[in-house]
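Friendly challenge for the regulars: who can give me the structure tokens for this chain first? No prize, just bragging rights.
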Amino acid sequence: LAALHSEVAGMNVSALAAAVVEDVVGSVDAKGRQKRQQLEAAIESDLKSLRTAEQAEVDTMLQEQEKRAVAELKRDAAKLKARAERAQARANKAAEKAEDKANKQLEEAAKAK
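First reply, four minutes later:
Bragging rights claimed.
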């Protein structure tokens, strides 16, 4: 303690005050840098979480749009199939009529001989 007292006594007060201030400022700067790094890391983590949530929302919207588009295409395909079936039925009916008419003409031709 005596050695410390003699060392402090040998320094002038302003040098001692400057050393204390420098030590305190250095400590505060180090704590400030550490706190800033922690805040930056927390902000980056939050941004990543937001990007992930935003991407998930976009993916969900795209999946819903795709489902609606597929459903619409299926409805259109069903309508086209029904139209094709009706057209085929009309063609079959016309073919039967033509066949009946041809058979009738053949019978008449055979009777005419």
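Residues 38 and 76 are 57 Å apart (CA to CA). The two ends are 150 Å apart (CA to CA). Your move, everyone else.
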